[in-house]
Design brief:
The protein is of the alpha+beta class. It has a 6-stranded mixed β-sheet with strand order 2-1-3-7-12-15, sandwiched between helices.
Length: 717
């Protein structure tokens, strides 16, 4: 047992018992059977781990008793609206700056007619946590604006807050029993007229806090619509907006919430100082494997350890809803499933990320932070089946195990273990040809006339590269994607297939400057990757499920109404730093997960929507919008920006497609970065003995994803 932790406080709320009631529409919140058990187990874990004293844990529970009209607990310990608000404020007052605060809620979530009509309109709805006495006519929900304010007060006091919500809300879907499993939510909207005052703060103050919280996040809410994008705290929620939070019997006869069960199981195995991204990668896949309609979310402050304030450095990987930790130049994805019988693992990366069959990964033990140590590798796997946002990969080699057939055994690879991306299986090659002017320019210190012979001599030495390949003399110009040339000033130029300068390469490279060939190779690879992502599409004519079901528009907002810019598909023109809106429409009959990339004039690519989370669910027939302002690069008077929106059946992390600006260091470039000499100009190309003569830059189509793009011209006015 550890020493007492004086700077740690917990607020634990669990509701099994809801007072008998019928709302005016005949609806009611059913009793649950695993929420109080969740809270009791969390309390035990915190006491055992941190040696907390009774005054460090605040607990509100409602437990069913032999009397169907009364819970076991006395009124002062019940999770009523009044008690929940009071305990939040008590904890905030008691804790001091930098103290750690853990909040765990297990119970129903719901929706009700808004009491904030000035903010949401007369037909608006409030998302809420449901107190145990909600059936009483004067009882109140803990509404979204109130909950956000309570958390904001904690953050403002510089408390280190971790929040777990093991609940779902109505979300417009019918919540029903599924076999022996139970769902924490109901399928109705409570239109009961309830008190409109708040014990948290005056309504105007609540509205102002909400507007301030969402001002820079485009009014997007996450966590079942309950909270704005978290700022200053870490939050793990049981499920996404239109999903279910399940409870069931996991061990013995006691019911538990799936999120709480797997969370405590992982914490007992790996401790509280586990990086929150690692913890999430494990529990999210365990929960999702158990319940297909439940995908936990990790959002907010994710660059620290769970239940602690220790910062941890991460770079984006590719998990369902949040990245896992990687080193600066390493891309990883978590293991979703392990199939010992077929000697393979399922990884959270698929076609929508540009993955191909044949791609290889090294798998490391769960919790690995340093991927430079090859001695820690468990296995190398090769992708054999690719889905929209996941894949199956067979084991090709095992490390550190006494085996001659490289067959998996029980316990070798754990759920959530990081798989490090090695190389793509299918090269997406762009053909390059060097064309020198006639007559050759005279450049002091450079034997320009020798360049063709140097390139020819180097061809036999080059090895395969997944982005560019220099053409043989026999290949025709119509098969060439890029031409490299010299101008009369002794500068390298990269030309497109029409022999026109590639746009936005604003600063030429002089042949005689230091590291000129390195910069040229770097630019060719960068442009190839940029255009591969730009052209990424699902053009399979048989993939009719989502084709043409995603619509993207640009426009302005007038009186909260979206006004399109681009009638007739004209490319709109906006002033630099002028705010405009991107409106995304789901015209399919399925809930889609939306992510949007901005392809900048500086040849960078950034996922700008949604922030903090991997993707945003969008219901059938619905639309969502985000505002954006664009700034031109230095010395650029006009530029074309491209907004590329992806929609997938499953949540997919598109941060793997991000690129920095031209000439900046790229993630994942690693050991394939070219050297400094001209003779190494071709050091990263395909083997000439087996050239890729047919260039394909489109991933294999499937019915699991689609994409659309729009352009906008930005000018300095």
């Amino acid at each position: 047992m550890t020493n007492q932790t004086p700077n740690f406080y917990a607020l634990l709320i669990g509701i099994n018992f809801y007072f008998p009631h019928r709302l005016p529409e005949g609806n009611y919140y059913k009793n649950l059977r695993g929420c109080v058990q969740d809270i009791n187990h969390v309390e035990t874990y915190l006491k055992d781990t941190f040696n907390l004293t009774p005054d460090q844990i605040i607990k509100l529970t409602a437990t069913a008793s032999d009397n169907p009209n009364q819970p076991q607990e006395p009124p002062e310990l019940l999770p009523t609206y009044e008690n929940i608000v009071a305990k939040f404020k008590e904890l905030t007052a008691k804790a001091q700056p930098q103290d750690r605060v853990y909040i765990h809620y297990s119970g129903h979530g719901g929706r009700a007619k808004t009491i904030f009509e000035s903010l949401k309109g007369s037909m608006g709805l409030d998302e809420a946590l449901v107190p145990c006495d909600i059936g009483q006519p004067n009882s109140r929900y803990l509404r979204d604006l109130e909950f956000a304010k309570l958390l904001e007060e904690m953050v403002a006091k510089e408390l280190v807050v971790t929040l777990v919500l093991d609940s779902c809300h109505s979300g417009g879907a019918t919540r029903e029993m599924s076999g022996d499993d139970q769902i924490r939510g109901e399928g109705f909207i409570d239109m009961t007229l309830r008190p409109t005052d708040s014990l948290v703060a005056p309504l105007q103050e609540l509205a102002q806090n909400w507007q301030s919280s969402t001002e820079n996040s485009r009014n997007i809410t996450v966590v079942n619509g309950l909270l704005p994008e978290p700022k200053g705290y870490t939050l793990i929620a049981a499920c996404r907006d239109q999903e279910f939070a399940y409870e069931k019997v996991f061990e013995g006869t006691e019911r538990n919430g799936a999120l709480t069960y797997y969370l405590l199981k992982a914490l007992r195995e790996y401790g509280t100082e586990i990086p929150v991204n690692n913890l999430y990668a494990r529990i999210s896949n365990l929960v999702h494997n158990d319940f297909k309609q439940q995908t936990p979310m990790l959002i907010g402050e994710t660059n620290r350890s769970f239940l602690g304030g220790q910062s941890v450095s991460f770079t984006p990987g590719a998990s369902l809803l949040r990245s896992v930790p990687v080193t600066r130049t390493t891309r990883t994805v978590p293991v979703m499933k392990v199939d010992i019988t077929k000697n393979r693992v399922q990884l959270q990366m698929g076609e929508a990320n540009g993955l191909k069959k044949g791609a290889e990964f090294n798998i490391f033990p769960f919790g690995t932070r340093n991927f430079e140590d090859s001695e820690q590798r468990i296995a190398t796997v090769k992708v054999v089946e690719v889905g929209a946002s996941d894949c199956w990969a067979e084991v090709t080699q095992l490390f550190g195990f006494r085996t001659i057939n490289h067959k998996l055994a029980e316990g070798m690879i754990e759920i959530g273990s990081p798989a490090v991306y090695l190389s793509p299986g299918l090269k997406q090659i762009r053909k390059v040809r060097v064309i020198l002017p006639d007559p050759l320019p005279q450049i002091s210190g450079v034997k320009v006339e020798m360049l063709p012979d140097i390139l020819k001599a180097k061809k036999e030495q080059v090895e395969g590269h997944r982005w560019i390949e220099f053409c043989s003399e026999a290949e025709k110009d119509e098969n060439v994607d890029y031409f490299v040339s010299l101008n009369s000033e002794g500068e390298y130029w990269i030309l497109d297939a029409n022999k026109e300068p590639v746009k936005n390469l604003l600063f030429p490279i002089k042949v005689d400057e230091a590291e000129a060939t390195d910069r040229l190779i770097n630019r060719l690879i960068h442009v190839a990757r940029y255009e591969t992502i730009l052209e990424l599409d699902n053009d399979d004519p048989f993939a009719a499920t989502l084709n043409s079901k995603l619509k993207v528009e640009l426009g302005n907002s007038e009186k909260r109404e979206f006004i399109p810019f681009n009638p007739g598909n004209n490319v709109p023109i906006v002033a630099e730093k002028e705010k405009f809106f991107v409106q995304i429409h789901n015209q399919s009959n399925r809930t889609l997960n939306i992510s949007a990339l901005l392809l900048d004039t500086d040849l960078s690519i950034v996922k700008f929507y949604p922030e903090h989370i991997t993707s945003e669910p969008l219901d059938p027939g619905q639309s969502k919008g985000t505002s954006i302002k664009l700034e031109l690069p230095e010395n650029c008077q006009e530029g074309v920006y491209i907004i590329k929106v992806f929609a997938t059946m499953d949540a997919t992390n598109f941060q793997l497609l991000e690129l920095p600006a031209l000439d900046q260091s790229r993630k994942g470039f690693g050991n394939q970065e070219p050297q400094n000499a001209l003779e190494q100009l071709l050091a990263a190309v395909v083997d000439e003995n087996n050239p890729q003569r047919k260039v394909t830059v489109v991933t294999d189509a499937s019915e699991g994803w689609t994409t659309e793009k729009v352009e906008v011209v930005v000018k300095k006015m």
